[in-house]
Amino acid sequence: MSEHDSITAATEARTATRLPRTARTTVWILFAAWCIDYLDRQALAIALPFITEDFALSATAGGVLLSAFGIAYAVSQIPAGLLADRFGAKRLASFSLLAWSVFTALTALTWNFASIFVVRLLFGSAQAAYPNASMKAISEVTTRRQRMTANGIVLSSNAVGIVVASLAVPLMISLVGWRWMFVASALLGVLLFALVAKWLPGPAKARAARAEAGDPEEDPVADRRGSNTLLLSPWMWVYAGMHFGSGIIVYGLISWMPTYLVAARGVDLAGASILLAIPAVASAVGYVISGRLSDRLGGRPRLVVAPIMVVCIVVLILMSNSANLMLFILWETIAAFLVGLCTSSYFAVPLKSVRAAYAATASSIVNTGAQVAGIVIPIVIGLIVDRSGFTLAFVALAAGAVIAAACALIAPQTVDQFAGRLRDRSVIA
Fold first, then answer.
1. CA 142 to chain centre
2. Is residue 246 part of a domain?
3. Interatomic CA distance for residues 169 and 187, integer angstroms
4. Burial of 195 per CB tally in 10 Å (0-12, 13-18, 19+)
5. Which domain holds residue 40?
6. Which of 105, 246, 288, 382 is found 20 to 30 A from 9 (Cα to Cα)?
7. What are the angstrom distances between the C-alpha of 3 and each of 8, 11, 296, 424?
8. In angstroms, rounded to a whole number, what is the distance separating the alpha carbons of residues 429 and 425?
9. DSSP secondary-structure letter at 217?
10. pLDDT tens digit string along 360-389?
11. Using CA atoms, how far apart are residues 51 and 385, in angstroms rounded to an integer?
């Protein structure tokens, strides 16, 4: 290939992944709402030292509270994905946002372990529809070559939400207490609900946006047979396994790090908020790069996830054994960046392969892996902390990297490989 041809090909590749106006609008609306999603999720972890003190709870009981969200969120993932494919991305995203904001507010009214556990279950169920509706909304307004670039930007909101939570939640707790902090967070959710309900594109506008981007094909309505094809495919669950391994690391860190910094390292609330924000910023950068990388490589988790997770094992062990606090935060920051760098690879091949009509179902399967980890790992960490302390607890997170790397090695690496392993090709774009 001549130099001119190489330059032309590179220009065409950049143009193909450039997002049109409707897609950009969709991305930034979803980004803003997902920031609130993660702020509301992380609020309990940050407030946990105060809640456990008020309710006289052990570390294990605190871990169960953190897992309550994960239990409901994981169980609701696939039903929520099927509903999003059936009723549309905009309806489910709007409903989810409003419902979880109500349950965030109700957290302020809890009075003991049982009451807050029930509210967190309801909160998790309400939030389950949003990520799948979001990925369906992105699939509806993008071509396959743009999809993970858009998703990478939206997924980076997870880390941005953690940054915002790390800075805003401790401040609100110090000013008005943990109960009113949940009320204020809920009001932000209601404001974002109005934005999503008004500006997120509906089906007709989404189809027009895809036609403008060079993908005029109109997707059929999702049917049960197509959804079952994805649900029963072992390869979809291999991708879920990758996200499960990653989720062990993510949920292990974000659920217990606030308590660790305050209780084990003696950091005050203001200092902890800054230290929590640093790894989250690195994670956000990793998410954005991950989306672009997945679009450029067409997926191929063997080239991304496997080697990065091997490095992550070493980083987690170094982090766990760091006596110096700043060195500990440095290793945690590197680990957060590495995990973020892998995230789009869990979704890339499935979401590039399936029709937009089945995008929510596909994403819900992959998301289920991470949410199962969200159930298991906070409780496991709590048990280890009660018996052996935080050092061994954080070393245990390296098991997640081993699982993610193993799944990446056996997963279908491209759209063609994935499509060839599905019995019913009617779900394939």
1. 20
2. yes
3. 14
4. middle
5. 14-424
6. 288
7. 9, 12, 20, 42
8. 9
9. P
10. 888 889 988 988 887 888 888 888 888 888
11. 18
With H, G, I as helix, E, B as strand and everything else as coil, classify residue 397: coil
Q: Is residue 3 part of a domain?
A: no
The pLDDT of residue 212 is 64
The answer, yes or no, to whether residue 5 has pLDDT greater than 70, is no
Please check the confidence at residue 78 and state whether its pLDDT lies above 50.
yes
The residue written with tokens 């059929």 in the block is 220
- Say how many C-beta atoms besides its own lie within 10 A of residue 379's C-beta: 20
User: Is residue 69 within 8 Å of 373, Cβ to Cβ?
Assistant: no
Is the pLDDT at 38 greater than 60, yes or no? yes
Q: Phi/psi class of residue 394: alpha, beta or left (left: φ > 0; alpha: ψ in -120 to 50)? A: alpha
Give the model's pLDDT for residue 222. Answer: 63
Q: Is the pTM of this model over 0.90?
A: no
Do 412 and 350 form a contact (C-beta atoms < 8 A)? no
DSSP element (H, E) containing 300:
none
Check residue 276 and give its pLDDT. 76
Residue type, 51: I
Tell me the CATH number at 211: 1.20.1250.20
For 319, the token pair is 């982090």
Question: For residue 42, what are its two tokens?
Answer: 């992380």
Find the helix or strand (DSSP H, E) in which 9 lies: helix 3-17
* pLDDT at 270 exceeding the cut of 70: no
In a domain? residue 71: yes
- pLDDT top residue among 41 and 242: 242
In-domain check, residue 8? no
200 φ, ψ (degrees, to nearest 5): -65, 130
Q: pLDDT tens, 130-166?
A: 888 888 888 778 777 777 788 778 877 877 887 788 7
Question: In the chain, how many domains are there?
Answer: 1
Six token digits for residue 68: 């309550």
CB 112 within 8 A of CB 55: yes
For residue 428, list its beta bridge partners: 354
CA dihedral sign, ordered 151, 153, 158, 161: negative
Q: Of 130-134, 203-207, 286-290, which range is least confident?
A: 203-207
